[in-house]
Specification:
By secondary structure, the protein is of the alpha/beta class. The chain is built from 12 helices and 8 strands. The protein has an 8-stranded parallel β-barrel with strand order 1-2-3-4-5-6-7-8, surrounded by 5 helices. β4, α4 and β5 form a beta-alpha-beta unit.
């Protein structure tokens, strides 16, 4: 499965009642594909506020995104959790909805060891014919999938990629040791270009909601051998990469990017509790940051 190089972890639009805003979801999908040049969309990932979405909402989102994207971009369903049984059921529902692949996060809170994580991902992969992307983000899950376990999982036919957020060293070692056809994605916008330079294939991005077309240009410049242009674009975009998460102190994802989207005219609404909207100071910082883009 070719997911492309620029994958956007899509926010979930909410209306004033805190329910999914379906009309705005369709607008957002069009915008991310047509304007921001996303090759694929992750639906109901962390950026989509998966912890506060019900399973019914997730499956409805999967189906809606597949139908609206209509083949213009791949749809990757966030179906991972810290329960293997639950992840299998949701993955199978996602497959029925017609998605192109699933994103499976490392189990959080219950802190499995490497063998437990291997068996968790193995069981889910065997329950579906869909391509699987692993997701290692120890800053959120505490447990970290090791290089060795990742490469062991890469031998399973339909485990085809990983979104790696542990370290650049880990990106390097996985990219070096992975079998042909297994791709590594960075999960950190500011590391997109550095990760490409050590063997990553692309990025699963949050900033691409706002600067996706420029990120696509940066990636394509690097891939086509114009490293100087790619470096120049990286340096230009870097303040946006950092600012969306550190405005003016670290903000939980997707608080900043949802606010940024509203500034660009997309009625994606606020976030569900326990996340809260940006403070007045934070909103001012984000407004000034976005104003610099154009």
């Amino acid at each position: 499965m070719e997911f492309g190089r620029l994958i956007t972890a899509m926010v979930t639009p909410f209306n004033d009642e805190g329910e999914i805003h379906w009309e705005e979801t369709s607008r957002l999908i069009d915008y991310l594909i047509d304007v921001q040049k996303s090759d694929a969309l992750v639906v109901s990932g962390t950026t989509g506020e998966s912890p506060t979405l019900s399973d019914q909402e997730k499956v409805e989102l999967f189906s809606f995104a597949v139908k609206h994207a209509a083949g213009r971009a791949k749809i990757i369903a966030g179906t991972g959790s810290n329960s293997t049984h639950h992840s299998i059921k949701l993955t199978q529902e996602a497959e029925k909805a017609g998605v192109d692949g699933v994103l499976l996060v490392v189990p959080y809170y219950n802190k499995p060891n490497q063998e437990g994580m291997f068996r968790h991902f193995e069981a889910i992969a065997k329950s579906t014919s869909l391509p699987v992307m692993l997701y290692n983000v120890p800053g959120r899950t505490v447990s970290s999938l090791s290089v060795e376990t990742t490469l062991r999982l890469a031998q399973i036919e339909n485990i085809v990629a990983t979104k790696e957020c542990a370290s650049m060293e880990q990106v390097t070692l996985i990219a070096t040791g992975a079998p042909e056809g297994f791709t590594v994605y960075s999960g950190d916008d500011s590391s997109t270009l550095p990760a490409l330079s050590v063997g990553a294939y692309g990025i699963v991005s949050v900033a691409s909601h706002i600067i996706g077309s420029s990120m696509k240009e940066m990636i394509e410049s690097y891939v086509n051998g114009d490293v100087q242009k790619a470096t120049s674009l990286h340096q230009k975009l870097f303040p946006i990469f950092k600012g969306l998460f550190d405005a003016p102190h670290p903000l939980p994802n997707p608080v900043a990017v949802k606010y940024a989207l509203t500034l660009k005219g997309y009625e994606v609404g606020s976030v569900r509790l326990p996340l809260v909207a940006p403070t007045e100071q934070e909103a001012k910082f984000i407004s000034e940051l976005i104003a610099k883009i154009d």
